Amino acid sequence: MIPASFSYHKANSVQEALGMLQQHGGDAKLLAGGHSLIPAMKLRLNQPSTLIDIRHIAELQTISVAGDHVVIGAGVTHHQIATNAHIHAHAPILAEAAEWIGDVQVRNMGTLGGSLAHADPAADWPAVMIASHASIEMQSASGSRTVGADDFFLGFFETALQEDEIITAIKIPVAGAHTGSAYKKFMQPASRYAIVGCAVVLTHENGKCTAASIGMTGVSEFAYREKAIEDALVGKELTPENIKHAASLAAKDVTLMSDHFASVPYRKHLASVYAERALVAAAGL
Ligand SMILES: Cc1cc2nc3c(=O)[nH]c(=O)nc-3n(C[C@H](O)[C@H](O)[C@H](O)COP(=O)(O)OP(=O)(O)OC[C@H]3O[C@@H](n4cnc5c(N)ncnc54)[C@H](O)[C@@H]3O)c2cc1C
User: How many CB atoms lie within 10 A of CB 92?
Assistant: First the structure.
């Protein structure tokens, strides 16, 4: 459980970290909360020759509201998200989900940017980002770009992030009027990672669903949008029967994972159950 040796560099700004990434090339890894990277290094699944510590970069640690978006620095911790007033007011699903991540130590150290970059198939944030229509801002020495959450998660621990890029911020549209949201997960009892996690953002008027955005994690090799459920709900009355029918379509278009926590049929069942629970809560039923 001892990592291979590495050199350590502390960056004080994004520019400095980008310079270090360029200098040390593909062998270097950014270190944020260290709660995914350090365990992987201890298991020698990851053996970077250089760690660039971005944890102390102040510009990555702010939460603000800019126009109709909440802007969260990549270095903001799960705990800060769970307790921030802007997030509670304008993107409450993030505060709700953050409460369910790991334990106190994990929430105090782990960061939103680190979780998105790591893209664990059982992580909570990817589903919440998809449901919230988040966009992920990345910077490299040659410029910056923004990728929507739908296009960010590409595969098993695979994202659109390039080796020379740093996630700098995550932008979440401010929740509008008549919007309800919920995140429900069936968790691994020790780590609290999601065996199945479903994030829902619903807009409804006079009991009818006018928009639905649903992200699922833990089910397949990477988080995805539950398009079939969304399509089944939009334009329909948000009744328990309509919700049950829509939720029964969960995981119908993906290849499900199977492991010692949940077989394929059990995971599929859980996906419907947790989609229904999240939809009921988001609809306020
Ligand atoms: C016991 C335990 C329980 C956990 N339970 C849960 C859980 O219930 N739900 C859940 O979702 N997660 C869980 N986690 C994971 C936790 O949320 C991690 O903190 C998170 O996945 C990684 O964030 P980090 O800041 O620690 O990143 P690090 O471990 O520092 O980095 C992870 C990866 O992201 C890269 N990276 C970090 N920041 C950036 C950036 N800004 N730009 C580009 N690349 C970057 C690193 O180079 C590295 O490759 C758990 C972890 C542990 C140890």
Answer: 17
Distance (Å) from CA 157 to ligand 1 centroid: 12
DSSP 8-state code for residue 234: T
Domain termination residue (choose one: 113, 144, 173): 173
Q: Is residue 135 part of a domain?
A: yes
Among the listed residues 248, 193, 255, 245, the one whose alpha carbon sits nearest the alpha carbon of residue 224: 255
Q: pLDDT tens for residues 260-280?
A: 999 999 999 999 999 999 999
Asked if residue 143 and residue 188 are part of one domain, the reply reads no
In a domain, 1, yes or no: no
Residues linked to residue 172 through DSSP beta bridges, in sequence order: 70
Secondary element (H or E) of residue 23: helix 14-24
Distance CA(229)–CA(245), nearest Å, equals: 9
* Ligand 1 centroid to residue 140 C-alpha, Å: 20
What pLDDT digit, counting tens, does each position of 209-225 carry? 999 999 999 999 999 99
Q: Which residue CA neighbors atom 20 of ligand 1 most closely?
A: 115
**Predicted confidence band of residue 27 (pLDDT cuts 50, 70, 90):** confident
Among 126, 99, 122, CA closest to 112: 126
* Residue 213, ligand 1, Cβ within 6 A: no
Instruction: Identify the residue whose C-alpha is closest to ligand 1 atom 12.
Output: 123
Instruction: Decide which of 173, 197, 217 is a domain's last residue.
Output: 173
119 & 151 share domain: yes
Is the shortest distance between the CB of 274 and ligand 1 below 6 Å? Answer: no
Structural domain span for residue 131? 59-173
Which residue in this structure is represented by tokens 């996906």? 271
